[in-house]
Amino acid sequence: QVQLVESGGGLVQAGGSLRLSCAASGRTFSSYFIGWFRQAPGKEREFVAGTSRSGGSTVYADSVKGRFTISRDNALNMVYLQMNSLKPEDTAVYYCAAADKAIFVPRGRFEYDYWGQGTQVTVSS
């Protein structure tokens, strides 16, 4: 079992940057694949980025590829999402999630077992 807490959200202007953090509790953090999802008003929760247990494999949604970078530091039980060149359409609540049965980085929300509470990211135009 793992508990996840996101932080780092806020309001930024288009073209700006933010770094989101996901802090995990427990001693088995490195056992989990970690993903970032987001949910905008009126839309369903969508996959943003994911990383393998070691951080060696990463997967990105086409909408953020080249702008966002996911990374993890297992020694600190932390996962990060560096977001650059932000656009108004990136505005959403961002969630980190953990999957414990994956072989490849999961992209589906139902493949993840644990979720954080979310952090709001708002990008103004």
Total of helices: 0
Summing up helix and strand content along with how strands pair, one would put the structural category as: mainly beta
Q: Beta-strand level of the residues, as a percent range?
A: over 45%
- Quick check: average pLDDT? 96
Number of strands: 11
Distance between the termini: 40 Å
Which oligomeric state applies? single chain
Order of helices and strands: EEEEEEEEEEE
The parts where pLDDT drops under 50 for at least 5 residues are none
Shape: globular
Write up this protein:
The structure is a single chain. The strands form two sheets. Strands 2, 4, 5, 6, 9, 10 and 11 form a seven-stranded mixed beta sheet that branches. The chain is mainly β. The model has no long low-confidence stretch (mean pLDDT 96). The termini are far apart. It has no helices and eleven strands. Helix content is 0%, strand content 47%. Strand 4 (33-39) and strand 5 (46-51) form a beta hairpin.
